Amino acid sequence: MQTVQDTNLQAQQDSMILSVIEQMYEQMINLVNNWEKANKEQNNETITAKLERYKERVKTFKQRLNTDLSCHEKMIDSHMNDMIREKLALKEQVDSLEQNLSKQIKEKESLFKTFVVMPVIDDEEALILEEESRFKMSEKAKDSEVIAKKISHKPIDYEKLNRLTEDFGKRFSPQQELSAE
After folding, report:
1. Which of 7, 5, 26 is nearest to 15 (CA)?
2. Domain ranges of the chain
């Protein structure tokens, strides 16, 4: 963007210089014509030679200015082409990323449909139920029939259970995916 502004500024400056040169050229011609009229009999050949030299200088300067403008235009075109190529490359990258993201979202949605994860609710009601469960288990642990049958009544670690469920979902393919293959 800065390069385009710089070249626009240079083009404006070049245009102003060209305008000033044209005005100087016209003024010079007017001065020379007026001076020629006043001193027509004197040095007519010298004045004509000077005028021709001035005309040649102005012509040379105009040619140089046009050459510079042409170079600036080519540079602007080159920069614009580079920017267009970069934009197209970035668009391709964005499109590719969108496709990958879409595939990943579809895969995750498929996994969510296949596996149901039981969330652990850590609110007051869940804590009360957990406490009641622990109390019942400790009572059963004291029961002689249960001790005779050797039944284990350890409290359930819900965080560990959730981690195992998530890990299971990552390591094993659902039955639906296996049958599709």
Report:
1. 7
2. 2-113, 115-180
Instruction: Give the helix/strand (H/E) hosting 55.
Output: helix 44-114
Q: 10 Å Cβ neighbour count for 34?
A: 10
Main-chain dihedrals φ then ψ at residue 168, nearest 5 degrees: -60, -45
| φ/ψ (deg, to 5) at 156 | -85, 130
- For residues 40 and 42, what is the distance between their CA atoms, to the nearest angstrom? 6
pTM strictly above 0.85: no
C-alpha 93/C-alpha 108 separation (Å) is 22
Q: Do 144 and 99 contact (CB within 8 A), yes or no? A: no
pLDDT, tens digit, for every residue of 56-88? 888 888 888 777 777 778 888 888 889 999 999
CA-based nearest residue to 130, from 167, 157, 104, 92: 157
Residues 42 and 146: their CA atoms lie apart, in Å, by 140
